[in-house]
Amino acid sequence: MFDAKKETKNIVKFIRDYFKSNNLGGVVLGISGGKDSGVVAALFTEALGKENVLGVTMPCHSIKDDKDLAKVVADYYGFELINVDLTKTYDTFKDEITTLGDFKEENTLNSDINIKPRLRMSTLYYLAALYSSLKGKTYIVGGTSNKSELFVGYFTKGGDSVCDISPIADLTVEEVIAVGEVLNVPKEVLYRTPSDGISQKSDEDKLGVKYSDIAKYMEDKDSLPKEIATKIEKLHKSCEHKFNIPTYRKEK
Which of 56, 108, 63 is nearest to 80 (CA)? Predict the structure, then answer.
């Protein structure tokens, strides 16, 4: 049985211990207006204090609600929130790509979706280095991926999968929500339908499976109808390359 109060305390301690042992000063987070970034922001604020948390919104042809709800989280917990609009950066990149050929939308769709989280992660690392210099203490980038989406590869390699510390990577979606309830994450954020804020589709629409079923699969795949279990298994196996980089080792 998942004990949300206990796990919340454990995660806060995990963060504090890591920062203390590595002489770190602050954390930079992408704040999307969704539950994962909201819960992670709450955890870091509790662990480090609001003065050591920097939230960043990074709109890129995004919906307005993302930025508005990010502000709700920042205002509630009191940490600094800055905005870096990546729309022009993305458009400039796309303009340059068009010089390579006249590509159809169906050919560039996946590339277009994945370049956005990669631009965002580059931004977070830039700001972590900048704030380290400005504040005279080391800032690192916090991760916001949960166990359910990681299991089925629902992340961008070189994008939102990149971070320096990952507080909720061993929590399912349901467990993230339970921790969020302990930390009083604003309801409009915590219970918001998960989406990438990019494709205009919900996460579950894109995946073709429910997060609750992914959690069941990880616990006991035989408890699911065979069709659903097979689909989740296929998603998991197809993303293994995202976790393992084959490295040649010379003979000794």
Answer: 56
Instruction: Give Cβ neighbours of residue 171 (< 8 Å, ≥ 6 apart).
Output: 7, 146, 147, 179
Please check whether residue 120 is in contact with residue 60, taking contact to mean a CB–CB distance below 8 angstroms: yes
- What does the domain layout of the chain look like in residue ranges? 4-242
Counting beta carbons within 10 angstroms of the beta carbon of residue 206, is it exposed (0 to 12), middle (13 to 18) or buried (19 or more)?
A: middle
Predicted confidence (pLDDT) per residue in 132-179, tens digit: 999 999 999 999 999 999 999 999 999 999 999 999 999 999 999 999
Confidence of residue 41 (pLDDT cuts 50, 70, 90): very high
Q: Report the CATH number of the 4-242 domain.
A: 3.40.50.620
